[in-house]
Amino acid sequence: MDRKKILGFEFTGKDGEFKLQQPDHSSFLYFPLVNEGGMMSTVTPKLHGQATTGHNTFLTPPLSVEDLHNSRASRNFWVYVEGKGAWSAAGNSAKQNAAFYTSSADDSVLEAGFLWHRVTHSNSEMGVKAEITSFVPSGNDKVELMKVTLTNAGTEKLTLTPTAVVPLYARSADDLRDHRHVTSLLNRIYTSAYGVEVQPALSFDERGHRINYTSYGVFGAEGDGSQPAGFFPIQEEFIGEGGSLDWPEAVILNTTPEIGKGGGVDREGYEAVGGLRFAPITLSPGESHSYVVVMAIDSDRINVEAMMDKYGTSEAFDHLLEETKTFWADKVNMVEFHTGDSDADQWMKWVTIQPVLRRLYGNSFLPYHDYGRGGRGWRDLWQDCLALLIMEPAEVRSLLFNNYAGVRIDGSNATIIGQQPGEFIADRNNIPRVWMDHGAWPFLTTMLYLDQSGDLDFLLQEQTYFRDTFMSRCKERDTSWDISAGSDLRTASGEIYKGTILEHILLQNLVPFFNVGEHNNILLEGADWNDGLDMGADRGESVAFTSFYASNLLDISRMLRTLKTSKGQETIELAEEMHLLLDTLNESVDYGSISGKHERLDRYYAAAPNKVSGVRVSLDINKVADDLEQKADWLFNHLRNNEWVQSENGDGWFNGYYNNDGERVEGEFSEGVRMTLTGQVFPLMGHAAAPEQIPHIIAAVDRNLFDDKIGYRLNSRFGGIQQNLGRAFGFAFGHKENGAMFSHMTIMYGNALYKRGYVKEGHKVLESLYSLSTDFEKARIYPGIPEYINEQGRGMYTYLTGSASWLLLTMVTEVFGVKGKLGDLLLEPKLVKEQFDSEGKASIKTIFADREFEVVYKATGSFNYGEYQIHSVTLNGGDVTLQRGSGSAIIPREELLALQTEELHVIEVTLA
């Protein structure tokens, strides 16, 4: 077989469906199968992967990406062909793997869509073709379904004996190495009429040795619902002495199972396997026969009869598959793009689903994400909401409100996030750590919500604060606190304290202003967005996020003035301790004095030591706005004058960091240029970069960070391990946080360029990411954005990345220019020539004001941004009230709310 003929994926439908020839000729491929009920699976072209509902409940063995090709413990479906021997319908047998590079190798093709996976294997020597379709049904059942259709692809009758096999790990990931054997002694294994079920006697993990109720099972039936002919429930008996899961004795010798039809024999104390033997069948040429396999996890013993009634026939499988396709298509198609590149439009559908996958999987439970124990981090809560504001806006208000309950009174936040919305858990591991960027993200996301909704009342709603043993941004401990006291901040009298959302926002942005290092930038603390910069906790400073906080302070100031003009809000109420952070009630702090800032912050910590008085002060809203604006202006001047790196060749950029020795990180050194993309993104995205500085930054990025092979690097080569800055520099250059193309920061760079009017440059950035991600020969990933592109151009850590939210946000609000302005609809397109189709049109379907809109842009003259203006706008074919701006138009919210909610409304915009 000529491996050079292997091509990349091709889209085959209008809902993101794609096809890939010989998918098993690419390593590390995996596909997500998941539902809202908590079933999280992964499947590869050879049916490897895992199925789980959480860290402590794995049906199959937990795995990392290297296990996809090294481990033999995978789903499998075997066929013993009379006169020819054993063949794996998944292409996953020792014999087939050995023949992989020869002419005897299987032909295979992958087809996939939202969220279903089908792989077809055929082998001319065996005369058999197998089509295996996998999905997790939408809904709340924790099941994964697989249908196998065997077809006689030869010219003679074939007699086949099928055997479905799924290893049953049935316990916590913690037991994969430690206690692997001893936990198998807990297994209680049951066989029934349809399969094998395991319910370990105890939950043997870090939570303690408790009675276990969770059950795990593998069940199956022929397509018409007929029961299996027998069962192999014990792994060592199934594989035989000296055997293995990819060459098991029970299949190779076609042995008869000891446990026959109907099951009823129980075993205990061994590693389990869901081995289901089906009765032999004879197929004429072209004839097919189907089987359904059900993998299930339940909170108690499984009601097998009820489950098989629901899932155990081909008819039921096919019906549920269509239901699941519709469920995911409806979710993804809340946002649709139409440009001059239909493949790019289909690819964006996969980008659109990635934030949903991130919400469901957290940061774990996919093979590359072999870290963490599930769940999401603080930053994830806010960035994932960026996409949800576009895709699922009805849910976002409550999510944002709940998230604010994780803020501490010292301006930091909880780091352990519970399963329920708004659930934050006190740190039990005694690991005091603060990521200095965490306080910056909530306002950015909230401001997007306010622009989309106009819901300024949200700012005045009251929410609790989080409390645990850590205080003063984890520099001190509250020895009077224990877990029995609960995690709500209380007043001196013991009552739970609540403050407005606005108070939470102010607190998170004011405390960092005073928390500075020796160069008067905000301290790096445990790290910022780049978790790899985790070794500068004493003297490290994040100039990049000082820019972000500075822009926040200015935008909050403007928001306060809007509150006054729009809502008549004359004053705001804050906890009395917070007056120390504002100059409205104090002698002014010299912002150039680092010791002065520290003294003021220490006074605040002393005034609010993990509790507050409960007394509120009423402050003039204009004075608070003035205070924030003064702080922002001081920071902008400081950054522009003190952190600008002037290059010898005339361009320049912002220094992004100081290391733990107090040394400036970026600049031109004898050993070469040191530069980070992060250090440029946040001055550009906000207000810190002056207009005249922007062209110099772009030139410097192109010269020092852009690489034709892998796009925009996160940083230039620093050379050597930087133990005074972070672990990232222990990684090989060109990998992960050390000089790879990190999608998240690349997209934010593109977003920032669009925001500042550099559309051609922004388009180049987004086009680079798209080209890298879809170059299958190098990237070797399914459609979507990877977390990063490594030095070889391979896409890494696919599906679970916050960059998908940012790309979706950028495409909707910047490229297509469909965005909110305090509830009104602002149209401000920044399309370039390549994005219009042959008729000069580009369109987007999206939600705004709880109505579904299709916004169609029609260019009648130039297609180049900057050469067209909005000439006219119609809504459903009629005139619409407009407020015009430079290159933009605003449709008042009242006009949109008068429209029917069930219809698709068309806004046509003529560009001339």
Structural commentary:
The protein is an alpha+beta fold. Among the domains are: 9-171 and 222-259 and 277-293 and 310-333, Beta-galactosidase, Chain A, domain 5, CATH 2.70.98; 376-646, no CATH class; 817-911, Maltose phosphorylase, domain 3, CATH 2.60.420. It is 27% helix and 25% strand. The protein is built from 22 helices and 52 strands. The protein has an eleven-stranded antiparallel beta sheet with strand order 1-2-8-9-10-11-23-17-14-13-20, with helices on one face. Strands 6, 7, 12, 18, 19, 21 and 22 form a seven-stranded antiparallel beta sheet that branches. A hairpin with a 7-residue loop joins strand 10 (128-135) and strand 11 (143-152). Helix 8 (342-361) packs across helix 9, helix 12 packs antiparallel against helix 13 (543-567) and helix 13 packs antiparallel against helix 15. The longest helix is centred in the middle third of the chain and has 25 residues, at 543-567. It is globular and about 90 Å long. The chain starts with 9 loop residues before the first strand and ends with a strand. The relative contact order is 0.08.
What is the topological layout?
Blueprint: E1 10-11, E2 18-21, E3 31-34, E4 40-43, E5 51-52, H1 67-70, E6 76-81, E7 85-88, H2 94-98, E8 107-113, E9 116-123, E10 128-135, E11 143-152, E12 158-168, H3 180-184, E13 188-191, E14 195-198, E15 202-205, E16 208-211, E17 215-222, E18 230-234, H4 235-239, H5 249-252, E19 259-260, E20 267-268, E21 272-277, E22 281-283, E23 288-298, H6 304-311, H7 314-332, E24 336-338, H8 342-361, H9 378-391, H10 396-403, E25 416-417, E26 424-425, H11 441-453, E27 462-464, E28 470-471, E29 476-477, E30 498-500, H12 501-514, E31 541-542, H13 543-567, E32 571-575, H14 594-607, E33 616-620, H15 621-642, E34 644-646, E35 652-654, E36 657-658, E37 667-669, E38 672-674, H16 678-685, H17 694-704, E39 706-707, E40 711-712, E41 741-742, H18 743-755, H19 759-774, H20 776-779, E42 786-789, E43 795-798, H21 803-815, E44 818-821, E45 824-827, E46 841-848, E47 851-859, E48 870-875, E49 878-879, E50 883-885, E51 888-891, H22 893-897, E52 904-911
Parallel strand pairs: 47-52
Antiparallel strand pairs: 1-2, 2-8, 3-4, 4-5, 6-7, 6-12, 8-9, 9-10, 10-11, 11-23, 12-21, 12-22, 13-14, 13-20, 14-17, 15-16, 17-23, 18-19, 18-21, 24-46, 25-26, 27-30, 28-29, 31-36, 32-33, 34-35, 37-38, 39-40, 41-42, 42-43, 44-45, 45-51, 46-47, 48-49, 48-52, 50-51
